[in-house]
Amino acid sequence: MEPLQLSQTVMDEYAARILLGTFERSASAVELSRRFGIPIAACYRRIKELEGLGLVFCERELPSRNGKGLQMFRSRLKSVRVSLEDGNLRARVEVGPAGVLAAPESEVLEQVLNLRGLMGIA
């Protein structure tokens, strides 16, 4: 997981709504779609992307009438901080462990990008 990529994903409006909607309790894609006005196909795409980045996980699967099971998603994201200081773009992301509610330990990822060096500025 690269913090800069994670911070860009979190800034996406739909992704931010999904993370917010799954922060305190798990929610299904259908529930998130209805509650936040996210088209269902876009909701599933963002959830898949957030799962791939390790920001959400399927906390449990509930039985459903169609036999497929209703997946309930939960956010792992605790905090995101992006700053620009002295020509450095810094991203810091803190995520909690998947499947462990209220666990004190978390993973902190930090990435710094020297913009001056990329632009040839001393």
Poorly predicted runs of 5 or more residues: none
Taking Cα atoms only, what radius of gyration do you get, to the nearest Å? 17 Å
What is the CA–CA distance across the termini? 29 Å
Number of domains: 1
Summed over residues and divided by their number, the pLDDT gives a mean of 86
Notes on the protein architecture:
The protein is α+β, with helices and mostly antiparallel strands. The longest helix is centred in the middle third of the chain and has 13 residues, at 40-52. The chain has helices at residues 3-10, 13-21, 29-36, 40-52, 115-119; strands at 56-62, 70-75, 77-85, 88-95, 107-114. The protein has one domain (3-119): Orthogonal Bundle (Arc Repressor Mutant, subunit A). The chain has a three-stranded antiparallel sheet with strand order 3-4-5. It has a two-stranded antiparallel sheet with strand order 1-2. The protein is built from five helices and five strands, in the order ααααβββββα. The relative contact order is 0.18. Helix 3 (29-36) packs across helix 4 (40-52). The model has no long low-confidence stretch (mean pLDDT 86).
The gist of it:
Helices cover 35% and strands 31% of the residues. By secondary structure, the protein is α+β, with helices and mostly antiparallel strands.
Tell me the layout of helices and strands.
Blueprint (H helix, E strand, L loop, with lengths): L2 H8 L2 H9 L7 H8 L3 H13 L3 E7 L7 E6 L1 E9 L2 E8 L11 E8 H5 L3
Antiparallel strand pairs: 1-2, 3-4, 4-5
Helix pairs in contact: 3-4
